[in-house]
Write a structure and sequence with these properties.
Layout: E1 6-13, H1 18-27, E2 34-39, E3 46-55, H2 61-68, E4 73-81, H3 83-89, E5 97-98, E6 103-107, E7 121-125, H4 137-149, E8 156-159, H5 165-172, E9 178-182, H6 185-196, E10 203-207, E11 218-224, H7 227-230, H8 234-240, E12 241-250, H9 257-266
Parallel strand pairs: 6-7, 8-9, 8-11, 9-10, 11-12
Antiparallel strand pairs: 1-3, 1-4, 2-3, 5-6
């Protein structure tokens, strides 16, 4: 087996540019990104550090040029991580991340983490290179939406659960029965492991393609997947929603917004925010 070293790219930017930076890093081939938010010297301002990893052979010149052209981007730093160091010390690259007002994602091995304010909910995850750390901008948007709409005891369907982070968050926020599905058996296995790390007992994990086989209506359906997949789910999701239910769609980049908007409007659903 050949040894693969890795290059890290860390972009310091204002929060207003975080999503665009993360999107570009992903478009250039990163499996996922991690985002940390840190107060600056000024009490009224914060900055983000968006981190991605690429094989050593990957040419960074064009990526760095494109990142530099984004508004509100500050320093960009790169580094080399040897495969032996990655294998032995990869956990050092992941840290607790405050995602929303109430939700914080904490790597499973950081047992010393202490919530910083009353009401803070800790989601413990074992990050995986294929299914991410739960801090990607599209995941953050989905988590924020769940935080805003869950009032207690709602039934939830999480389509394309991946790491299971959305299902876990829904449970911690007070939802009732949750069904989380993924077409990938490996994702379901990882989600099961992550669910077991958290004090939740109302998540049913299944291997399933989209909404195939669902008949019972749900109060909330959430999906954080590619827009090309979302567009084919919308009609089925609309027919499964309870009256006054919510459909949360994330993973939609700017060039696909109108496509999704049109499909949602065709079903008769009302768009509350974009």
């Amino acid at each position: 087996m050949s040894i693969v070293n890795w290059r890290s790219v860390v972009v310091r930017c204002l929060p207003t540019s975080e999503e665009l930076v993360a999107h570009l890093l992903t478009e250039y081939g990163a499996d996922g990104v991690s985002v940390t938010t840190t107060p600056s010297e000024s009490e009224s301002e914060t900055y983000c550090e968006v981190t991605a990893y690429y094989p050593e052979r990957f040419k960074l010149v064009q990526l760095l040029s494109d990142i530099s052209a984004i508004d509100n981007v500050g320093t960009i730093t790169t580094g080399l991580i040897k495969e032996t160091d990655w294998v032995d010390n990869w956990k050092q690259y992941y840290h607790p991340a405050r995602i929303t007002r109430f939700l914080t994602i904490v790597p499973s091995w950081q047992n010393d983490y202490v919530p910083t304010q009353p009401g803070e909910l800790v989601i413990r995850l074992d990050p995986d290179t294929s299914f991410g750390t739960g801090t990607h901008p599209t995941t953050r948007l989905a988590l924020l939406s769940l935080e805003l709409i869950i009032r207690g005891e709602e039934s939830v369907i999480d389509i394309g659960t991946g790491s299971g982070v959305l299902a876990i968050a829904a449970s911690l926020l007070g939802a009732g029965q949750i069904i989380a599905t993924d077409l990938d058996a490996a994702a379901v296995s990882i989600a099961q492991s992550n669910v077991a790390l958290n004090p939740v007992n109302n998540i049913d994990l299944k291997i399933s393609d989209g909404l195939t086989g669902f008949e019972k209506p749900a109060d909330i359906i959430v999906a954080n997947i590619l827009a090309e997949v979302l567009v084919n789910l919308i009609s089925d999701a609309a027919s499964l929603l309870e009256t006054e239910g919510h459909l949360v769609l994330s993973g939609i980049y700017h060039d696909k917004i109108e496509l999704i908007r049109q499909k949602v409007m065709e079903t008769g659903l009302n768009i509350q925010s974009v």
